[in-house]
Every structure is written in C-alpha cells, then in structure tokens.
Design a protein that fits this description.
By secondary structure, the protein is an alpha/beta fold. It is about 20% helix and about 30% strand. The strands form two sheets. The chain has a five-stranded parallel β-sheet with strand order 3-2-4-5-6. The protein starts with a strand and ends with a strand.
Length: about 180
C-alpha cells in the first residue's frame, strides 16, 4: 500500500475559503441557505464551511447532519452497517440546501442523501459541495457544484480524509493505492 499526500494545511484552509467565496457569490436573493453535512466525515467539512461563512456573512447558515445509510441502494450488500445520527433542527422547505461531503466517488451517497432529505421538506434548490471529487469513478450521473480539488483515481485507489476533529494531529488528505 502506498500513500500520496493530496492536500494538507495551509492549502486546505485556502481551499475551504475559496469554496465559501463561491457559495457566497451564488447566494439566491430572498432564499435562506442551510448546510447539511453527510455522515460520517462530511459533517467535519460542513462545520468548517459554516465557520468560514460566519466570518463573511452577517448571519451564519444553520447546519445539520444527515445520515443516508439506509437510503443507499447497496447497504444490504455490506457485511457491516454502521449507521450514524441525523440531526436537522430546521425545516428545509423552500430553502437553498448545500449538501456537503468530503469525497464524491460513485455518487451513490449523494443519491441516497437526496432521498433522505425529502423527510425534512422540499428545498427550493439543492447544491453539492465536496472537498475531493474522484473523477472517472462515477456510477451515477451526479456532479458537484462546488469542488475543492478534483483527483484522477483508479478503481484500486481510495481517498482518505483525516480531520483533527477525528483525533488526527493535522488535517491531511491521502490517495491510497492498494497493490
């Protein structure tokens, strides 16, 4: 197994700041923006996005956590299912929802999140913000609106995101190749 560093501090902070500027530029007048971090690691990225946005906006967007595990079309095929919690303390009806995840690969988690979201209302608009876009691995026709970094990967490679919030010494994103 080989590990190649894709992104780390301070470039990660610059990337998050750039993504937030794009989110601000694309605000829709008169429509409230909310953020939903996808469990498990998308919530850490969503919290960073919300924190950065609060520096530039008079009012920070509300943030929630969405677990779409049981909405995935492949969850029964897995040996173990480790569900996380969903915590959305607001209604998403008629709001701009920014779905946030750390890595976009096959698109299955995003499709599941769209299904899971309907229990909380019908948003005016849904946009996808990802830190890493694994291009050439998509199973479904899903693309992100906001991308931190696009990475060419093979099916034998994996992107691993390590957040300090998970107990790591520093934030690092690795490309891992299995022989």
């Amino acid at each position: 197994m080989t590990r190649k560093l894709i992104l780390s501090s301070p470039l990660l902070e610059i990337t998050i700041s750039r993504l937030c500027q794009e989110l601000i530029e694309n605000q829709i007048q008169g429509i409230e923006t909310v953020i939903l971090g996808l469990q498990p690691r998308g919530i850490y990225f969503a919290e960073r996005i919300a924190k950065e946005l609060s520096k530039h906006l008079p009012e920070a967007p509300q943030i929630g956590q969405l677990d779409a595990t049981f909405y995935r079309d492949d969850f029964r095929r897995r040996d173990t299912v480790a569900p996380n919690s969903t915590h959305i303390p607001f209604i998403i009806e008629n709001k701009r929802v920014i779905l946030v995840d750390d890595v976009l690969a096959t698109g299955r988690m995003v499709r599941a999140a769209l299904d899971a979201m309907t229990a909380f209302g019908r948003p005016a608009k849904v946009e996808l913000c990802v830190l890493i876009d694994r291009i050439y691995n998509r199973d479904l026709p899903i693309n992100a609106d906001y991308i931190g970094k696009s990475v060419n990967t093979l099916s034998t490679e994996k992107v691993l995101v390590e957040w300090t919030e998970q107990g790591h010494e520093s934030d690092k994103i690795w490309l891992i190749t299995h022989p």
